[in-house]
């Protein structure tokens, strides 16, 4: 297969890239950290293709995506996380998170959707935080809720083009992104587990790929409760 993964220089995206390369697929590995991307290229010189750019720049996306082979699978995984202190709301922080997670995804979609083969797949990296309103995640959770909506609509609108769209909603995964967190992260899994779950879900063409299930089902269950009860339980759990 020809696969393109954004955010392939670190964490979940890097593990996915390496796992697909190990099984003989051609992988376009995207990111800003050229040193990290080159390390992947050194291990898989014949299969890894490095695309070094910032997803926030539409011009860089246009330039980077000019000479791709037709794609079987696109995983738009690049993302960032910063937390908000609601009492001193930081609009610049909010904008930074939205810019990478939402606009960065849209920038990639503009050039990549036309390059996905009929029968191919597109996966958008969301988060299980999109299932519930979680304090401190006012920016991050909202960005992933936007991706959830985007993925749902694309799942419907790209069906006639025979492109299968999936939404990936992990719980906590051990990566540089979560290593920065200073709060308990229940049921945190490693990138090997995350990569295996994502690959399995994509192979089956699943709409929603969420894991670890004991954590994500709990969030989903709370998510269907009446808002007042939901908010009460969340406030209690985080107190
Ligand atoms: N870890 C978790 O618990 C968890 C849970 C749910 C969802 N997720 C999502 O999974 C995705 C990957 O996160 P991770 O945990 O693997 O974090 P990570 O190790 O920090 O990786 C983030 C990746 O995104 C890329 N990236 C960030 N900003 C970019 C930009 N402006 N342009 C291009 N690439 C950019 C980074 O590449 P460069 O630095 O090279 O640009 C890096 O490869 C994110 O979308 C995150 O929201 C993570």
Tell me about this structure.
The structure is a single chain. By secondary structure, the chain is α/β, with parallel strands linked by helices. It has a single domain, classed as 3-Layer(aba) Sandwich (Rossmann fold). The chain has nine helices and seven strands, in the order E-H-E-H-E-H-E-H-E-H-E-H-H-E-H-H. A seven-stranded parallel sheet has the order 3-2-1-4-5-6-7, with helices on both faces. Helix 5 links the parallel strand 5 and strand 6. It is globular and about 55 Å long. The termini are far apart. The site of NADP nicotinamide-adenine-dinucleotide phosphate has 29 residues, from helix 1, helix 4 and helix 6.
Strand order of the largest sheet: 3-2-1-4-5-6-7
SSE topology string = EHEHEHEHEHEHHEHH
Termini separation (Å)? 48 Å
Overall mean confidence score, pLDDT: 97
In this structure, how is the largest beta sheet organized?
7 strands, parallel
The structural class is: alpha/beta
Q: Give the CA-based shape.
A: globular
* CATH topology term: Rossmann fold
Unreliable parts:
none
Radius of gyration: 18 Å
Note the total helix count. Answer: 9
CATH arch. level architecture: 3-Layer(aba) Sandwich
What is the CATH top level name? Alpha Beta
